[in-house]
Amino acid sequence: MIVRARLLFALGIAAFAGTAAWAQLEAIPAGEERNPPSSVRLADLARLGSLEGWGPLVPVLRDAAFQAYREDRLSAAEAWFYAYRWAALFAESERDCVANWSGALREARVGHAGMTGQYKVTDRPLGLYLSPEAQAWVLANANFSEEFFSLLSPLDYMPGVLRILDELYRGDPAGFARYSSLALAIAVVHDVPPPPFWPHAQVAPEALERRWPPAREAFAWWVRQDTEGRTYQRLTRLRADELKFVVDAAASFPDLSWSQEIVNYPLGQFERTYSMICYRRDREANGTAIWSDRAYTLPAILGAGGICIDQAYFAAEAGKARGIPTLLFYGEGQDGRHAWFGFLGQDRRWRLDAGRYAEQRLVTGRARDPQTWTEISDHELQFLSERFRALPSFRQSRVHAEFAGDFLQAGDADAARRAARNAVNYERRNLRAWEILLDANRRAGAGAASEEALLREAALAFRRYPDLEIGFVNRMCASLRARGQTSAADFEERGLAARLHGDRSDLSTQQARNILLRSMASQPLEGQIRDFNSLVDSLGAGAGTGFFDQIVVVFVEHLAQQGARTEAVRAADRARDTLKIAEGSQLDQEMNALVARVQGTP
């Protein structure tokens, strides 16, 4: 089949005459799409796109990609598809890009004060942010294209991403080629200023300036550490989705260099860095959670000591100085709240519990993704740890999912369903492919029973990732309730909460919260109290701060707002007895404060 489009391909440029010789081409030669585009073809595309604009190239490249896909030429289809994606990106107007980005920020609720400012809304195409030389480079590098489009998020500010990539490419083309994943990580993290709660909220603004260093300076610093052998993880062997947890350092480069001299634990013992900071029990006793008396530097923290958040920050920053991807965690334990850190350790496996005390019975914890500033989900942490997205099977799955998404956008639900099914067959952990499959199934007119079967299949596929399993099961339960199958939905919901109670009490609590909120919205007061007591009795034994926050506080305050203060105090007392709260603990103090509030006592 011949892929047709009305295009002008440049055959040559008469530079001194100021004129160009063009040949009109109505079709890509038959059969060319069966193989990845040649270097000559990609160079021609880059030259034409930079001279005449990328818009006319979009349909011809899409046709080539989809023709290769229909012929089951997957590697060729992938290569043509990424060429098509680059053309579409370069052709997109700044106005459309900013509108889509702003909408994504609002939907995800991750806009922050650091983003305030003027953003251009001209009709200039995004391709102008990348020089012709840089455009030609990215178009010709299949591995970079795969990494770029697999990492890309609607929350990335694309003018900023492309501007940084261009700056780094023009500053050091050879270094960019060798450290392209590092350059990409810097681009997607530094595309907008950091938020005021970064790296954590327990340090005053005057003690730590929240700003990124110049992109070239950051790139050169980490490249130098790697080439001079000061990194524990070789940066050329890490992907951008790991390196973004290196380049999000908040400490200055002098501080990071200082830490390399002070912190001498090898990678296999790097969790001991956490304990280098002397714990300040006086700050804990005085309730002094905010560091505000001096500059928040790594030497100052080591000299003065700190609480758990300072220990975690110090260790995480020291890791970044050594090229180790690190995460700062915070979470709730049995008797209080805590902070710790995670890092990419030996054998490139994530350690997610450094500084996490076993006796606290802490759950997975929460961390921020510096690319999007959303909280990193439990399953994403597991995905990072397993590193399955670097496997060939997942790459094949992603290709099918890319085409499935494009089919769906074009309105071909049946083709989208087939492609998405191929994607999940190659890799059951491809979450995006499952969502496309569900959407395509719905658009193809399948009924509720078919959707519930797919949701159950997806829940089973993610049985090892409880937060995802819960999501699919709850959607299935919502569908069952909409069909009047309330008892079946209740059975599924409560059964999952009970099963998760042992190993993942945090998710069990989340499930219990959903049950409680539905009861509060639909049941009379007696029924609400009965459901609360049932949840406390079945799931509250030995539970900690998370259960207190999401179940006890919510319901006790709800009763007080309804004027049922006596019942509110009884509910709190029942929870206190069942949770077995240690006298004098942080949780005991919070429970006492809750009871005082509902009683109206000062």
Physical arrangement of strands within the biggest beta sheet: 3-4-5
SS elements, strand count: 5
How many helices? 27
How much helix, percentage-wise, in residues?
Answer: 55-70%
Average pLDDT, rounded to a whole number, is 87
Query: How much of the polypeptide forms β-strand, as a percent range?
Result: 5-15%
Instruction: Report the structural category.
Output: mainly alpha
**Overall form:** globular
Poorly predicted spans: 1-26, 358-363
Overall radius of gyration: 27 Å
| Biggest sheet record | 3 strands, antiparallel
What's the end-to-end separation, in Å?
81 Å
Protein described:
Helix content is 57%, strand content 7%. It is mainly α. Among the domains are: 30-189, no CATH class; 447-500, no CATH class; 511-602. The strands form 2 sheets. Strands 3-4-5 form a 3-stranded antiparallel sheet. Strands 1-2 form a two-stranded antiparallel sheet. β4 and β5 (350-354) form a beta hairpin. The chain is globular, with a radius of gyration of 27 Å. The N and C termini lie far apart (81 Å). Residues 1-26 and 358-363 have low confidence and may be disordered.
Summary tags:
three-stranded antiparallel beta sheet, disordered N terminus, 602 residues, mainly alpha, 27 helices
SSE order and pairing:
Elements: E1 3-14, E2 19-28, H1 39-52, H2 57-70, H3 74-91, H4 94-108, H5 132-140, H6 142-151, H7 158-171, H8 173-178, H9 180-189, H10 215-227, H11 240-243, H12 253-262, H13 281-286, H14 298-304, H15 308-321, E3 326-332, E4 337-344, E5 350-354, H16 378-386, H17 392-409, H18 413-426, H19 431-443, H20 448-461, H21 466-482, H22 486-500, H23 505-522, H24 525-539, H25 545-561, H26 565-579, H27 586-599
Antiparallel strand pairs: 1-2, 3-4, 4-5
